[in-house]
Design brief:
Elements: H1 3-19, H2 22-36, H3 38-44, H4 48-70, H5 77-88, E1 92-94, E2 98-101, E3 108-116, E4 128-136, H6 139-143, E5 148-149, E6 151-163, E7 188-189, E8 192-203, E9 208-217, E10 226-235, E11 238-246, E12 258-266, E13 269-277, E14 285-294, H7 301-304, E15 314-323, E16 326-336, E17 339-348, E18 353-364, H8 366-370, E19 376-379, E20 385-389, H9 405-409, E21 411-422, E22 429-439, E23 442-452, E24 456-464, E25 471-482, E26 496-509, H10 513-518, E27 521-528, E28 531-534, H11 535-540, H12 545-553, E29 559-572, E30 575-585, E31 588-597, E32 602-611, E33 623-628, E34 633-636, H13 647-665, H14 669-672, H15 674-682
Parallel strand pairs: 5-7, 6-8, 18-21
Antiparallel strand pairs: 1-3, 2-3, 3-4, 4-6, 8-9, 9-10, 10-11, 11-12, 12-13, 13-14, 14-15, 15-16, 16-17, 17-18, 19-20, 21-22, 22-23, 23-24, 24-25, 25-26, 26-27, 26-28, 27-29, 28-29, 29-30, 30-31, 31-32, 32-33, 33-34
Helix pairs in contact: 13-15
Length: 683
């Protein structure tokens, strides 16, 4: 037969088979089973052997059922306790009756007098002692691979939770698992009953203790149904209170949020949350409104483990949300000291803690910002700062608050902060822009930017906190800052005007700003390329009695040009020694010497002036600046007289240092400013 004819016949057969209805094919298959399958025939017409096997099977099933019905489950208490004790390396015992009901659509178990001992390192205290536990499961859900508990009941549970400073805890059974940051996921519980519960917590790393009662009721005549945890204790030896409330479980559903409220007070702080668990029984998912207030945001480290800066008293409120290991505190707003603060914070708790924050203030009180550096502020009822004092000894300028390096090592993160406007202040700061990055114990501050009414200060700082004594480096540049913002107005006009340029570049070890400065090395410089000074003060730089004193006493407001002013200091072991100190005006060229001690914050400077014009009467003696930085004294050295020297000698001594300083402060300044003319003239 030709191949093409065979193919056509096969295709025709296939089409005929495909057209047979599925029901007809099933009937054909059933008929074949009836006619040919020996197993089917044995069930339809059992023989003697089949009857014997079936009878034995039924007897075995009946025996198992009767055995389970009559079995004394208490016989398993010992084996279960020994197995659990060996597996979890702690004493576990079922000391009371054990009742099991298997033959029900909701199988249940009742355990009486359960004891769970502490781990090897805390054997003196049992982790849990419970008078009675009753639990039931829905069989239909269990066969479908789900756990649904119509009832979970605890009577007088006593729970002791201990966490040591080295990270061990008594509630972890078996080998510790990696920290995923996920919340506890519970089975569906339709009724939760806790009667006379008691929890004791001892968290030794933070000095946290809590003694709390726990109760859960599904119905109550007084309407006080639901879950309640109410406890008191201490945190770092300060009082602590905690109360958590939730509704009854009787009406709970997987797709219906479960409402709760929490109130925590301690460590000079108070946190109030009102929200819901978005997917009941999944404690890793919830959202709430969070309000917090206290004396210092830094105190919250004891409650949350998050490192926060020192601040004045605060009051903030926003939306708190948890998504397993990710926590967010978004759209929060409030006040810190006398300043407003708003922003968003994101915390990743999976593995190493990470915090990313974007913060902003519409109107900043600059005194509140100094609190981060260790200063202390006092805010009055009107919401304004009345005083700011250093955290060091009285009369000192640099704060001496100790940097907590262990907290910097405990987390990573980033921070941005911007203040759109700044309240009126002595330094005339108008805006602030800060950025920070913390990684593996190294804190990078970049940028650190302050915008003044005129001029700005920009720089960076790095703090290496990987060692017990942190090592820091700072580099700040001042551009165009007006001298009249520093020196107060007298007789209606500023005694000195001009724009200041400067740079501070220091590094060294120290766990506070004061200690860092006291041992630092580097350089500090200040340049005024041009400006004006009251002629009387310019004359007095040379202590010229005939001109300077007469002008000063007569109230003369005439001006004298500042051709150049340069102060350059080399810093070693916290002592800044003048390398170049020159003030050049139309009438006097003054040269300074001496030092500034950053450790004890004192000045010891001397200014020698030489007149550029002949004077009939003059008292030629140095001007002395001495005493504390916060309140220096100005006087003259009447014990020694200085003879006149030539301008050439003074200029020759300052030309080379000044030329080097210009490149350090601002390249191109020597070419464009009056200081460049001074150098060219001296050469």
């Amino acid at each position: 037969m030709p191949n093409d004819l065979k193919n056509r016949l096969n295709w025709h057969g296939f089409q005929q088979h495909a057209l047979v209805p599925a029901g007809a094919r099933a009937a054909q298959w059933r008929d074949w089973i009836k006619a040919n399958d020996p197993v089917y025939r044995s069930f339809r017409r059992p023989g003697r052997t089949e009857k014997i096997v079936g009878g034995v099977a039924l007897l075995l099933v009946a025996a198992v059922v009767i055995f389970l019905l009559l079995f004394d489950w208490n016989m398993l208490r010992g084996p279960i306790g020994r197995w659990a004790s060996a597996k979890y390396e702690r004493d576990i015992a079922l000391q009371g009756d054990l009742d099991v009901k298997l033959f029900s659509w909701t199988p249940s178990v009742v355990v009486r007098d359960l004891k769970v001992g502490g781990p090897v390192w805390a054997k003196e205290k049992d982790t849990a002692d419970v008078d009675r536990i009753e639990a039931s499961v829905r069989l239909r859900k269990l066969l479908a691979g789900q756990i649904e508990m119509p009832l979970l009941s605890f009577t007088r549970p006593e729970v002791v939770l201990i966490a040591t400073k080295d990270g061990k805890n008594s509630w972890t059974f078996g080998k510790p698992k990696p920290d995923t940051g996920e919340g506890m996921k519970l089975p569906v519980i339709q009724q939760l009953i806790i009667t006379g519960g008691h929890i004791v917590l001892d968290e030794q790393k933070r000095g946290l203790t809590l003694d709390a009662s726990v109760n859960a009721r599904e119905t109550a005549n007084d309407g006080d149904a639901g879950f309640v945890l109410d406890g008191k204790g201490s945190l770092n030896r300060s009082p602590l209170t905690l109360r958590i409330e939730g509704g009854p479980f009787i009406n709970i559903r997987r797709n219906r949020p479960y409402h709760f409220s929490a109130n925590l007070s301690g460590a000079r702080s108070r946190l109030v949350a009102d929200g819901s668990i978005t997917r009941p029984f999944d404690l890793g998912q919830f959202q709430s409104t969070l309000s917090l207030q206290g004396q210092d945001l830094n105190d919250l480290y004891m409650l949350t483990g998050i490192t926060l800066p020192n601040t004045p008293p605060y009051r903030l409120s926003g939306a708190l949300k948890r998504d397993d290991s990710t926590w967010t505190f978004n759209d929060f707003s409030g006040r810190v000291g006398a300043s407003d603060l708003s922003g968003d914070v994101k915390v990743e708790a999976k593995g190493r803690l990470r915090v990313d924050a974007q913060l902003a203030s519409r109107n900043l009180d600059i005194n509140d910002l100094t609190a981060i550096l260790g200063a202390k502020t006092q805010t009055n009822a009107a919401g304004t700062n009345t005083t700011t004092v250093s955290s060091g000894a009285p009369g000192k300028l640099l704060p001496d608050a100790t940097l907590q390096v262990d907290r910097l090592r405990s987390m990573d993160g980033t921070l941005t902060y911007r203040a759109a406007t700044v309240k009126a202040n002595d330094l005339d700061i108008r805006a602030v822009n800060l950025g920070a990055k913390l990684e593996a114990g190294v804190l990078d501050l970049d940028p650190v930017s302050f915008t003044f009414n005129r001029g700005e200060l920009n720089g960076t700082a790095k703090i290496n906190a990987t060692r017990d004594m942190p090592y820091s480096a700072i580099d700040f540049r001042l551009a165009g800052y007006p001298l009249e913002s520093i020196i107060p107005v007298t007789n209606g006009s500023p005694p000195i005007t001009g724009r200041a340029l400067g740079r501070v570049k220091l590094e060294g070890s120290g766990n506070s700003i004061h200690r860092f400065a006291a041992g630092s090395k580097g350089s500090m410089s200040l340049v005024v390329p041009h400006g004006e000074m009251r002629a009387a003060f310019a004359e007095l730089l040379g202590i010229n009695a005939s001109a300077g004193l007469l002008k000063l006493l007569s109230g003369d407001q005439s001006k004298s040009d500042i051709r150049c002013a340069v102060a350059d200091f080399n810093v070693s072991n916290g002592v800044a020694r003048a390398q170049t100190f020159v003030i050049d005006t139309d009438v006097v060229l003054a040269k300074g010497s001496g030092s500034i001690n950053l450790g004890d914050e004192t000045l010891n400077l001397k200014i020698d002036g030489e007149s550029k014009k002949p004077r009939l009467l003059r008292l030629w003696t140095p001007i002395l600046l001495r005493g504390p930085l916060t309140k220096p004294s100005i006087g003259v050295d009447t014990a020694s007289l200085v003879g006149q020297g030539g301008l050439t000698a003074i200029l020759g001594a300052v030309v080379a240092p000044v030329a080097a300083l210009f490149a350090f402060v601002d390249p191109g300044l020597a070419k464009d400013a009056d200081c460049g003319a001074l150098i060219q003239h001296a050469g």
